[in-house]
Amino acid sequence: MTTDITADLISLAVRSIHAMANGDRADFDSLYHPLATDRENRVQPPSSRVPGADGFYSTALWLRAASTGLRYDIHHALARGDLVVVNSTMNGTHAAPWVMYNDDAQVETVFPPTGKPYAMTQSHWFRFEDGRIVEHWANRDDLGMAAQLGWIPPTPAYLVRMALAKRRAVRRVS
């Protein structure tokens, strides 16, 4: 049996996933606690590594910059206490460079656009405090997405494109 509080938390978690694809800044302010931490931001830009709505909104912009038609299909959502888990699929088309960063927030790898669609299964875990998300973790099928986009195994031509794209990205950051 679902309580009103449990249903509300599930609704907020699902809204936060859809906000990644098409939410505006105000949506993120209403969903994320000022101290919210994203435990999944190791490859994301430095602007995504800050707490609260600022970091999560930066992650959304990063995802949107690399993909067109970004959307999420929600398959299941469950809650227990202050934790909510949402099983979903992220869909899009790889239309622009996807820049990955290392632990020192330096450009590590750049995947030039392939123009290919992808569908990546994901499970997102949220912890709530004061009615807003305070922690987020995710398990994603990154390897499956990489295979769909032709990142692995890379062709020699794609490896050259990656090196050139990385050089351009590093120049923009410097």
Automatic annotation (TrEMBL):
InterPro entries to which the protein is assigned, alphabetical: Cyclase_SnoaL-like (IPR009959), NTF2-like_dom_sf (IPR032710)
Top-rank lineage group of the source organism: Bacteria
Gene3D superfamilies referenced in this protein's UniProt entry, alphabetically: 3.10.450.50
Gene Ontology terms: biological process: polyketide metabolic process
SUPFAM superfamilies named among the record's database cross-references: NTF2-like
Protein name stated in the entry: Ester cyclase
Originating species: Lentzea aerocolonigenes (Lechevalieria aerocolonigenes)
Higher taxonomy: Bacteria, Bacillati, Actinomycetota, Actinomycetes, Pseudonocardiales
